[in-house]
Amino acid sequence: MVxxxxxxxxxxAIYVNVIATESLIFTAYLISLLTLxxxxxxxxxxxxxxxxxxxxAFHHHARSIWLSFDYVIDxxxxxxxxxxx
Length: 85
What we know:
Radius of gyration: 19 Å
Order of helices and strands: HHH
Largest sheet: none
Strand content: under 5%
Oligomer: single chain
Shape: elongated
C-alpha cells in the first residue's frame, strides 16, 4: 500500500505561497514608498522578478508549512501513531 495525499490536498500550500509572495512584494513596495523619493522602473522590474522567482523558490517550503499546519490542526490518531513507532 502506498501512502499518498488525496487529490487537491496541497491547494493550501498554493495559498501559503501566494500569501508569502504578495506579503513580501507589498512590504517591499511600501518600504520603497516611505524611503525613496521617486520609484524608478528598475524597482518595478525588481518587484516583477521577485514576483516570478519567489513562488518557484518557496514552493517546497510552502508544502512543508502546509503539512505542518495540517499536523497541528488534525493530528493522527494514537493507534496510527503507535503502529508506525
